[in-house]
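Translate sequence into structure tokens.
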Amino acid sequence: MLILAQIDDRSGEVLGRALEELMGLGARNVQLLSSVTKKGRPGNVLLVDVEADLEPDVGAFLAVELGVWGYHVLHAGHRHFDTVMKERSVTVVCGERRKTFVMPCKFFCQGTRVLRVKAERADVETLQRFVAEVDDGCSSETVRSRVEDEVRRRPEAGEIEVRLW
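Result follows.
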């Protein structure tokens, strides 16, 4: 289910922390959208993707922490992909230099088919710093796409080699 809540009087710091807490309560995804409310006042629209059995806890949190007076429940036909986190050993090769990193990668699957692999931003930045020592023109997006593509193409391989320069 999708919960929609309108918020008009909370600071960015409070809202940022609330997103983390909602994920901790079991939300699958949380989105916060800026809006303009009556009389031109700034506001926010909060979307929380959550299982129906978690609605009472999420609703109570919205009232207590964010001061909402109520919320909307949207019954959407959202389909979630199976996701699993798997660690992979990724050896990055840059010219004569090579270094192996252990990377947690999120696999998005549909049955046995791997649809996408996603590396976490902090891990990509660690690899990119290593690459930048040799090639400062190689962007973090290039590093991310090369690593994710190699892991996706060989999902069962525990060790992957990626050549970036």
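Note: The mean pLDDT is 93.
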